[in-house]
Amino acid sequence: MTDMTEASVLLARPAIPYGRFAHYFGRAAIYSTLGAIGALQAFPLVWLVVTAFKNPREVFNSFLPSQLDFSNFVRVWSNLNLPGHLINSLYVTSLTVAITLAAATLAGYVFARFRFFGRDALFYIFLAAMMIPSQTILIPMFQFLKQIGLINTLTGLSFSYLGSAVAFSVFLMRSFFVSLPKELGDAARMDGAGEFRTFWYVYLPLAKSGVATVVIIQSMSVWNEFMFANTFISSPGLKTIQSAVFQAVDEFSTDYGALCAGLMLALMPIVIVFLVLQKQFVRGLTAGALKG
Amino acid sequence: MTKITRLLAGAALGLVSAFLPIAHSTAQETVLHVMGWETRHVPGNPVWDKLVAGFEAEHPGVRVESNVVPITQYLGTLAAMTAAGTLPDVFFGHVKALELGRAGLAVDYTDVMTDEFLDGFSPNLLAQLTTADGAVYALPYTGFAFGIFANDRIMTELGLTVPNTWEELIEMAPKIREAGLAPLAWGNLNTGTCRDFVMPLIAQYGGDARALDELTASWDSEPVIQALTLLDRLTKAGVFLDGVNGLDINQATQIAYQGRAAMLYGPSRNVGIFQKEAPPDWLENFSVHKMPAVIADGRHFMAAGSGLAWVVNDKSPNKELALEFLKYVFSPPVYNDIIAGFNGFPSRPSAMDAVALPQVREMIQWATEDGARNVLYGAGSSDAVDAACQAILDGSIEPAAAAAKMQADVLKARGKS
Amino acid sequence: MPTNRPSSARFALRQWNWVVPAFVAPAALILIVLMALPMANAVVLTFQFWNGMTPPSWIGLSNYQTLFSEPLFWSALRNTAYYTIATVVLKTSLPLILASLLSSGVRFSVFFRTMYFMPVVISLAISGLLWKMIYEPNFGLLNETLRFIGLGNFTQIWLGSSNTVMPSIIAVSLWQGLGFYLLIFYAAIQGVPSDLYDAAKMDNANALRRFWHVTVPMLRPVIVLVIVLNTINGVKVFDQVWAMTAGGPNHASDTLGTYLYSTAFGSVGNPQFGYATTIAMVILVLSAVLSIIQIRIGRRQEVEY
């Protein structure tokens, strides 16, 4: 009961002026810290955008462009078949995410709700798959894709991402399912539902935020991937946006304006997707992605 | 979504995936796969389009497909393709040309091309690509020569003339530094430009790059040690940019553009690039000069060679077609157009007239007399030189020790391969 | 936080006989075909010598012997250790602290969260290019800003000198990863029941003590998760380093990941796929061992999984 005594003693103390000051000072310190770090985070990107719009002569002389100059974009765009490459990236991303979701939701569900022989060991194997550096499987994957005739195809590229995508997503989905109560499953069974129906109609809808999380993380990861995309795809028309942008900006070696314009073009789709989906993403994480 | 919808969606996705991304073309067409890092070999570039159109007209049913891989990824992609057996039909060999040849993966041009054709190439360029036993695995596409680009405005303001010897350069360094400028700008990050600097120095001291590359001469020898000592002195005298190991050549070029350096070290290709990208101050004031020599009337050996050289895949089903392609590319009207359109440095003297820019012509002239080999094909040679160079530039090793290390590194690499 | 324990008694045996294999099958199939098989190939490669051009030849443990006696390997290992420790510490503690701050009732938290997350969306290759421009000693944003605010003496050749190159790369990694882990921690903090905080306030615990005695213990599993993720990513790091320095200058920023890539694909002699895969084995074993240790330690107080 000492806490109560302490508390009442403290409450009985007269209000000291600096208590309030300390409170506001604390608030101010917090806001300025958050703001400063936020500025550091955003500044390079702001610089990127600003430089993309600068006239080539101004790149090093002033921070803000005197007027919005779109010539950089024109130069980069004409070297780049942007819509075509966007579609390529979109295809690869959608295919990978779709297959990953299907496999990972099923497997994550089972890991979370059932006990079976070898469950822990199997789970650790999945975890281990996340630790493999991608350069290691580059050559074996290349040979494998060649054997099944999918070299230089976007489908083949998508398959090459599936291994690590599924490993990580199973991990995530399991955490989501673990936080859902088992009583729902029991209730469903009492209503005569089979296992798959229980999964599909009862648990999966509740794990919507988990699905959203997997979608966002995997989309980002596949969209931004560079090494496999460059190695497995050799036809120019099939290149993903990352390869294409790098190829395009290679020509503008000293031209920071064009370089920044190109990078901006590569970034915009994924930034837009993120801005649109970010609420679901946070909701997804909040709803218990990571409990245990 | 109901089950039926999901099934339909899955089926649709499956169908689409079966047809959409297939790269193999339909039956009738033969695709000739060309690969390189030349960013202008893309549809949409007028020179390339004309070239391709002409070839396709002569060979109906054939489509030329060009895969441009950025230079920084090139070796990686090439290695992966080699390992998996999916090399393109004709491609730039980079430093792997000779290795590929020895492994039987590249065509030996002396077997399939006429002597007349091969003689049409610049002798010293072709010599660099010829092995000791006379096989030629790569055909030089364009050449390059390295030289000094000076900003005349700055030089005049400082009352200086472009140095003729290295001693002169070292002497004028303090004065240029005092003015807040860098004497000689270039960058070594990622590109091994130091190799392009040091190899001609070795030649200037009497070394033989080819012998070194083939290990018939040791890297731990006088010319090499002297060249490295000079590099060390230049570094310590402040001739180069601070942190040259951390700058890439583009950044160094930018420094020259902005008037923060008196001189720039770079390849002849720069002249064409300046026309496109350089600000007026640089463009109107630059002049080209030979690399300084060791003594006043010594030979001004400079790095010259062919960085872009075509290799034909010996295991390709389209081998004959690939050879036809090369014969076409090097035929006078086509090749002249390429040289003119790309402001290139021709590898065939017959195209000399097509060179539009006077500075490039000048550099070609010098290279014919004083060109020194700088591209190394032997296993481990490039890397050993790069490592030694970087260490000298950041002052972490003594020249004699560096030379010994180079020899050791190359031996180790050869031992492994 | 109670963890659900499925009690096997409730499941009729006949039911999960087919469910478990059927549901796990797609994921397991994908992992076996697209991960395990290539890995198995890779393991075999470690006992061979292969340059991609001629058929591979068996050399037993020779790759391992060469690896462990190679100074470049040890320096890459040192750099990797430095990178991993720094990123684990920085990318766990800073996001945690910031997430706490954000949850303490500040306004505009959505705005802040979005700003912090923006760099995460960028690909590593692009951010490498971007930061290369920023770190450029003569014109880059960083040195120009330092000169502008009068701190011209502090300008460095960030990516070009061996003593600043690793910290510079670590800073970029922190910049890029901060938002991601911040969101994870932020979400987890939302899940902490607020009466715990109220009780602490009643005990007159200040913000620091509340953080240390309420937030951190409640978030233990998430913190362990973040540490494990950071460790795994740190040990295999490649893209960030390669895009900016390719392991230079003169191997000062070479990590296990970049060393692997350059021996497999670079101009170091011929490609040495067998030797390179040996490095990959080291990476794998290292991250596995570290992760298991961390998970075990983290489980000490957790309710059984």
CATH domain fold name of chain C: MetI-like fold
How many helical elements of chain A?
13
Strand order of the largest sheet of chain C: 1-2
Query: Which pair has the most extensive contact?
Result: A-C, 101 and 93 residues
Q: Which sequence of SSEs, written as H and E, runs from N to C of chain C?
A: HEEHHHHHHHHHHHH
- Give the averaged pLDDT of chain C, no decimals: 81
Determine the structural class of chain C based on helices, strands and strand pairing. Answer: mainly alpha
Please characterize this protein's 3D structure.
The radius of gyration of chain A is 26 Å and the shape is globular. Mean pLDDT of chain A is 77; it is low at 1-18. Chain A folds into two domains: 17-72; 81-286, Orthogonal Bundle (MetI-like fold), CATH 1.10.3720. Chain A starts with a helix and ends in a 6-residue tail after the last helix. Chain A has helices at 2-12, 17-52, 71-79, 82-113, 119-129, 138-147, 154-178, 183-190, 195-206, 208-223, 227-232, 241-250, 256-286. Chain A is mainly α and 292 residues long. Chain B folds into two domains: 25-143 and 305-372, D-Maltodextrin-Binding Protein, domain 2 (3-Layer(aba) Sandwich); 145-303 and 377-416, Periplasmic binding protein-like II (D-Maltodextrin-Binding Protein, domain 2, 3-Layer(aba) Sandwich). Chain B is built from 20 helices and nine strands. Chain B has helices at residues 3-19, 46-58, 71-84, 97-102, 109-112, 115-119, 123-128, 152-158, 166-178, 193-204, 209-213, 222-236, 249-257, 269-277, 280-285, 319-329, 332-342, 358-370, 381-393, 399-416; strands at residues 30-36, 62-68, 90-92, 139-151, 182-185, 261-267, 286-289, 302-312, 371-372. In chain B, strands 1, 2, 3, 4, 5, 6, 7, 8 and 9 form a nine-stranded mixed β-sheet that branches. In chain B, helix 2 (46-58) links the parallel strand 1 (30-36) and strand 2. The relative contact order of chain B is 0.15. Residues 21-26 of chain B have low confidence and may be disordered. Chain C has 305 residues and is mostly helical. Chain C has one domain: MetI-like fold (Orthogonal Bundle), CATH 1.10.3720. Helix content of chain C is 70%, strand content 1%. Chain C is built from 13 helices and two strands; from the N terminus they run αββαααααααααααα. Chain C has helices spanning 13-45, 62-68, 71-103, 109-121, 124-135, 141-148, 162-190, 194-202, 207-218, 220-235, 239-244, 256-265, 273-299; strands at residues 48-49, 57-58. A two-stranded antiparallel sheet of chain C has the order 1-2. In chain C, strand 1 and strand 2 (57-58) form a beta hairpin. In chain C, helix 3 (71-103) runs antiparallel to helix 10 (220-235). Mean pLDDT of chain C is 81; it is low at 7-15. Chains A and C meet through helix 1, helix 2, helix 4, helix 5 and helix 6 of A and helix 1, helix 3, helix 4, helix 5 and helix 7 of C.
